[in-house]
Amino acid sequence: MRIYLLVLALAALIQTAVLPLNLCLILLIVRSLSLVDRSNFYLAFFGGIILGVLSSTNIGFWPLTFLTAVVLCQTIKKIPVLSNLFFISLTAVSLILFTSFLQFLVYRQNIDIKIVFFEILLLVPGFFLIRFWEDRFVVKTGIKLRLKQSL
Asked: Each residue of 51-75: pLDDT tens digit?
């Protein structure tokens, strides 16, 4: 979780300084859709705080938006009927569009369709990359070795 928090901080820095893409939201949506875990809430909150401080805007907007996105993603993922790839994609796209609409309402920023489309395109490789990372490099605590006891 610490590594992912550092990645979120780096994405927030890139998002505020270089790219107008919402990289933190993409990373949080992808992780909460690939892994249902309580640590997603902590990541969403602290990632939102970091993004709010770095972007020098309302600090409470991003944590609330990220927490809402994580709660919706994890709820969709837990329901067996809605956990297929179509509904997961639809949820991710709707969250990206909803966040853009909230930015329009709160900050009076125009919705740029090219940026929203590029954010939606980044969801697919991000989903598979996070899934690969979680499967290969994260140690699972439930795995225990059995050793034969010799007499």
From this structure: 999 998 888 899 999 999 999 999 9
Dig out the tokens for 130 from the structure.
Answer: 């996070």
Q: CB–CB of 53/59 below 8 Å? A: yes
Q: What is the DSSP letter of 148?
A: P
Which domain range does residue 71 map to?
Answer: 2-136
Q: Is residue 46 pLDDT above 90, yes or no?
A: yes
Looking at the structure of the chain, the number of domains it has is 1
Strands (E) located in the chain: none
Q: Is 56 left (phi over 0), alpha (psi -120 to 50) or beta?
A: left
pTM: 0.85
Does 28 map to a domain? yes
Has residue 113 been placed in a domain? yes
Cα 113–Cα 15–Cα 125 angle in degrees, nearest 5: 70
Tokens for 110? 């125009």
Q: Do residues 13 and 107 lie in contact, with contact meaning Cβ atoms separated by under 8 Å?
A: no
Please name the amino acid found at residue 55.
S
Residue 97 lies in a domain: yes
